[in-house]
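Backbone shapes recur. Consider a single case.
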Amino acid sequence: MPVKKIAVALVIILVAVGGFAAGLILLRERQDLREKASTPTGTTEVSISPETGSYEIGESIETTIYFNPAGIAISGVAVRLMYPFSGGTPEVSVENIEINSTLLATGDWTCPTQDSTQQGESVIIDIACANTSASGFSASENTLLANVNLKVNRPPAVNPITLRFDAASSVITRKTDNQDILLIPSSTGVYTIGEAEVTPTSPPEATLTPTGTLVATRTPTPTSRLTVTPTSTISATPTVTSKGGEELPDAGISYPTIMGIVIGILMIGGALILIL
């Protein structure tokens, strides 16, 4: 077999192996992007308000979710909040999620994800919005993202309950390169749930009748009632894609990478046939 033919085949094999290795590296980097959602070196923040509070059975816990772009132009915000529950249904359920109407009124924001689900022993709240303007959105102060109201149905097994961000599923993406710049969230909402108040029964009052007989009378007291609202759950997978084609970070397999790997394998096979 000519030496030149062998040399060409070896070059083809080396190029194919290099392409195969590069494809695996790129694929791994795309998967790591999702795993490293919030970052300790991030500059933007998200927060919950109020951070503490005490509530009775039947009351609503009215919380607000904020994001702060820290003066950086951003292309999207996606947050996941969670809190524990026990039993067949949550002691505290999600009553409603309302996106900031001021953001939506600009026409530059779209918020397709505003859902609550139950996963294991946690209630999950997903909110995701994308900014579709060419320049992105920028602000240097806390900006209202959404209002989330929770309904207290019964005393929770774990009291107080803690509403917190899931750092692995919360991101704020920079407009220039679509990279996540969210600082790992530290803000939480800690809410104490008290028992429903019951009015004590008043003692009998003695009255003297004209005949001189004492008659005991009891003043009726209102009966306390507990109202339990059924839990409503909405199941959806949070995915945000802007009108301009920008996509918030997500894990997945790159089809161009797969094609590169397949082509590399075919090149190696062709080179081996050429040598033989």
